[in-house]
Structures are given as structure tokens and as C-alpha cells.
Amino acid sequence: MSQRYELRFSGAGGQGLILAGIIMAEAAAIYDGKQALQSQSYGPEARGGASKSEVIISDDPIDYPKATAVDALLALTQEACDKYSGDLKEGAILLVDSDLVKKIPKGDFLLVGFPIINTAKNEVGRTIVANIVALGAMVALTGVVTKASVEKAVLSRVPEAFRELNLKALQIGFDKAMSARETSFTQMGEEFHLSR
Amino acid sequence: MAKKIALLQGNEACAYGALYAGCRFFAGYPITPSTEVAEVMARELPKLGGKFIQMEDEIGAMAAVIGASLTGMKTLTATSGPGFSLKQENIGYACITEVPCVIINVMRGGPSTGMPTGPSQSDVMQAKWGTHGDHPAICLVPASVQELFTETVRAFNLSEKYRTPVTVMPDEIVGHMRERIEFPEPGDLPVVNRAVPSVGPEEYLPYDTRFGDIPPLAAFGSGYRFHLTGLNKTADGFPTNKAEVVQREGERQLRKIEDNIDDIVLYEEYLLDDAEIAIVAFGSTARSARYAVNEARKAGIKAGLFRIITYWPFPDKQLAPLAARVKAIIVPEMNLGMTIHEVKRCAAGNSKVTGIFRVDGEPINPGQILDEIREAGK
Lengths: 196, 378
Hints:
Strand order of the largest sheet of chain A: 2-3-1-4-5-6-7
CATH class of the largest domain in chain B: Alpha Beta
CATH class of chain A: Alpha Beta
Helix content of chain A: 25-40%
Oligomer: heterodimer
Distance between the termini of chain A: 31 Å
Shape of chain A: globular
Structural class of chain A: alpha/beta
Low-confidence stretches of chain A: 185-196
């Protein structure tokens, strides 16, 4: 991969999306030996409001630090999906929380959805790790960093006592996205189904 | 041994650069989007025997940085727009008393409270003209996380060498983005310390030009006693109204910079050798411009980039000949037209100069610059 690969993690402020982006960038830049750049955009609110974190990964030095045509978008809220899906590349991956994002933008992309926040709450046991569930899913869907690298990056970022919780969240997100992907299909702007 | 590598935020890189340069004192007042500089300094300085003080406001912080520097320490403060405005009077005090110190100003939208989380490049004129009176100004505008580290080190070096405050001004995008950084080992980058007196306390004068335009600076507490004032002063530091002394001293203070332009001015040229259209840009906008230049080259348009790294003193010496040999110059900047006036001054009518200005909190994207390149190429 010598081309720029652009990822965007979006949702509401306070959901940990900036951290998810940082971990993705660390996996690429520190453990996979690639170039990576993470940037963010958020409003003045500490919680709430649309928030995004962008990660650009490339084999070559990265000049423009923001996304130009997004290869993979995560949207945890409808507001974020509406606001940040306008510059998706043709054939891009769109991962949504299927409980919260009902209105899907039209376009030619691979749509994958599962209840991300509820998975964190019910299957991992803590809502707070929804960002890591989403991160695992983004790793599975994009393949832009190795799973081993992202595991190392997660471990280096979280306190000792929460390592197991976060690794579990990452794994469940990874597995959910893999199975969701099998039942999703490229949507051509007409009818579509969220895979559950 | 392999170099230490990390994914670091621009603001964090500033702080680590300051520590590398030997900074052991930080005074500040937290403000978005610069707070991470203070956070790292608060965490790291005590481990190194340094001092971190959160002051009552930005004015106090600037005063503390000047005071601490006078004890021989290398000192830092960090702020953004409204805080930079508050610091201006004391920056002038540091200029006239010739006290080295470094100010990080992470540029956000303005004026006033403006857009706290939005990027901007609209403080570049304030960095030179913000404090009143004629005074030297050095301002550096890095464009990457690695460069924020190295330019902060250089800011300390220039400040110590020329006995003057130096400003480092990343825009919010550069300050907040994260990139891979290789930490320089001790010895990889030069570290400059201010000249100290070679004469004893009884003979010492704080503005003794027998030693050149940059008089040695004694540290308070080291046995040397001298007077300081914001008034125009004589060699002993006491106030004067004597016309010839005031004129001579004013000229000397500017000469410290003007006679050393080549030592201070840093820039980067990209594909300019055969360029017909030149972009002049800095900070995150220069990264956007580089992308646009590459796209233009793919389309067969001879475009190139002049990236400003030292904003003040302005790179007149490089831009004047550039303007004489290109057809057009494009100046994209996140303000409503500031750098363009400096570029036009350098171009002196020798090439067409147009600008792309944006203050909506969004970066100037490569597409916008490419459109302007195509237009200029017609």
C-alpha cells in the first residue's frame, strides 16, 4: 500500500473516538513501521456535539494532514453520519452502530452495521469500551494495520487493570465485523439492509 | 542504539523540544489549543528538578518567564490567541531588557475568543507588531510534529544567542495532530547557552557593547547586581532620555537580528527550480500546498512550493529573486490576507501575487490550491 488510506472515526464528543484514532495511528506508525498521521476536529463541548478523529496511513510521507477522500468511516451517531459521510470514496467502507444510525447516506460503499454500543455494554460488560469495540471492527474491515500491532497499541495505552477488558472489546469488535461483513453487500444507492 | 520513537502530538513535541534545549522553567495559564504543552511540562519538569507554575493569568505568566530567565534559566510559556494578546506588553519588556525566553502560541481563530478549537494562521503580524515600539522579532512556524520539536530547540538557541524573546507558532492543526517522531539523542542537535560575563561583578554592565551587539547576561543570584527597567536605558541598565543613546540602542537592538538574517532564516524549497507558479505557504497550509503541487505536476503544470519556516525575519532575500523568475505566486493562508502583503512587498511587482484566504475553521484543502494553480497557469 503506497497510496494514502484515510480513516475517520466519528460520533459524539466523549465517546473516545480520538483515542481510537490515536491507537490506530500508533499501530501503524510504531508497530507496523508505516507513516501515520492522526488529527481531530471537535466543538467546544466536553461531551456531546459531533466529533471526528482522522487517521491517514501511507508508506510514503504524508503531506496534507486531513482526509481528502475517506476510505473507511465509522459513525456512532446519526449526526456524525450525516455530517461526516459527504466525502466517502467510491467503494469505501461505512461502519455504523445499527441501533443509532438508521438513515444511511446514498452511495456506492460497503455498509456494515452492528449494535456497537450495545455490544460493549452487554457482551464486553462496559459501555465505555465501545470505542475499542469499534476499533476492532475497523481493523477487521480495513486490514490496514495488523491485528497484532493494534493489540500492542491498545496495551500500551490502557492502564494495567483494564488490559483484559480492552483486549476483549477489541476481539469482539473484530469478530462482529467479520461476521457482519459476510452478510452485508455493496449498496448501490437503492435498497439495503443493515446486517445484525 | 535505535532512536526512541513515538506517536506524539505537536504540542507535546514542543514541550519535549523545550526540555531537550535545557528549559527548566515553565509558567503559563491553560488555554485551548495549547494546553498540552503545559500538561507535559507540569508532568516532566519536576522530574528534572525544574519548576512549573500555573499563574493567575497570561500577563503574570509572561512576567514569571522573564523573571526566571534572569536567574539564568531557560524559560517557556505557551498560549493561544487571547493569551498571546495579554502577553504583548511583557513581551515588549523582554525585548527592551533583552531577556531570552520562548513563547509558544498555537494559533486559533480570532479576534478575541474567536473559535477556540478552530485552526488559524492569523497571529503572524501580531508576532512582529503586537507589542508597541520598534523591537526585534523572531517567529518560527513549523509544519510537522518532528519540526515542532527541532524548531522549539532552535527557538531556545536563537533566544539565548541573540538575547531576545522568540515565538514558535504552530497553527491548531499542527499543534494538535499526531505523527511519528524520532527523539533526537543528546548531542544530535546543537544546544546554545547565553553568553555570560567574562568580567567580574564590579566591572559588569548589563548592556555593555564593548562585547558586541549582544552583551553578555549575568544571572541574578550569581553575585552580579544590576538594574533593569522598561525605560530606554544606558549600558548600566538605568533609565536615560539622552537622544543619541536612545537612537543608538534602538538601532543596536534591531541590528542583532538584521545582521544575522542568514543564521535565523530557515525555509524549504520544493520543486521550485523550473517552477512557473510558486506557492508560498507555512504550517499545515504548506502541507496542503505540497499535495497540490504534486497533483499539478502530474497534470503537467510546473508548480513549486516555498515553505516559510522562519516567518520573522521574513525571507525577503529568497522571495525577491523567486518572484523575478516565476509567472505567478499563490499565497494560501488561514486568515483574510496577511502574508500576501509581505510577499507582494518582496515581489515588488515582478510577478502576479494572489491569495487564498479562509477563516471558517476549516483547513485550506489541496483542491482549492490546485484550482488556483490551474487558474494562474492559464
